[in-house]
Amino acid sequence: MEYRFAKGNSEQFSDLAADLVHHKVDVILTAGTAQARAIQQSTTTIPIVFAISGDPVGTGLVASLARPGGNITGLSIISPELSGKRLELLKEAAPKIARVGVLWDALVPDNALDFEATQLAARALGLKLQSLEVRGPEDLEGAFSVAVKQRLDALVVAGGYLINSHTKRILAFETRNRLPAIHQGLWFAEEGGLMAYGVNFPDLFRRSATYVDKILKGRKPGDLPVEQPTKFELIINLKTAKQIGLTIPPNLLARADKVIR
């Protein structure tokens, strides 16, 4: 087994993809739209399986969910659809919010589509959005400063390696400023964030093994439909709610898959 890890550095994606292709591996498993795209540009013959992609059709990774085409298939987390739902849940948890910041990694192709979906939801909910776009770790403090200067009432935190690898730093900012926040990564709520809503990433990786198995047995990736998640998890951290002085409505608590007390 050949293993490559870019540590979130998108500039390395193409070189690492080319290296795997050079080793003539039988199939390449990856996570993330940008990573899959880099591999796709390096080979049209080696099968590619993506364990995670926010919107593989919207970003042009596959022709359609039913028939991906080419040498690629995998699993979608339908992130644009979930982005609007996260804002709705945040508004339900903290009804008085009016100005919401969206912290997102601009180097993740799906995140631009997620932000557009969040904008649509914001208009429907009567909320004003502030984009807190980052491209590297050095941008986080600037995003935090904008959030404070704009006196934002709450945060929506998108996914991506940059965001995920600075979980503690982001959570510390939220707690310090008593900001209600909802996150794409479920572990954010488990580690101290107020809320998280999304799919179980470890489960996606387990399911991706089924694709690899089918391909190694002779199936063509382009003929294997892209799977979508069937279960979404809502996690609410009541310890954090108490810490920031927020009372979560009972009907929202009742719908949570996990409540941390």
3D architecture notes:
This protein has 261 residues and is an alpha/beta fold. It folds into 2 domains: 10-77 and 201-223, Response regulator (Rossmann fold, 3-Layer(aba) Sandwich), CATH 3.40.50; 79-198 and 233-260, Rossmann fold. Helix content is 42%, strand content 16%. It has 11 helices and 10 strands. Helix 1 (13-22) packs across helix 2. The chain is elongated. The chain starts with 12 loop residues before the first helix and ends with a strand. The model has no long low-confidence stretch (mean pLDDT 96).
- From the 3D coordinates, which CATH architecture of the largest domain would you assign? 3-Layer(aba) Sandwich
Instruction: Output the CATH topology of the largest domain.
Output: Rossmann fold
Radius of gyration from CA coordinates:
19 Å
Secondary structure tally, helices: 11
User: What's the CATH first level of the largest domain?
Assistant: Alpha Beta
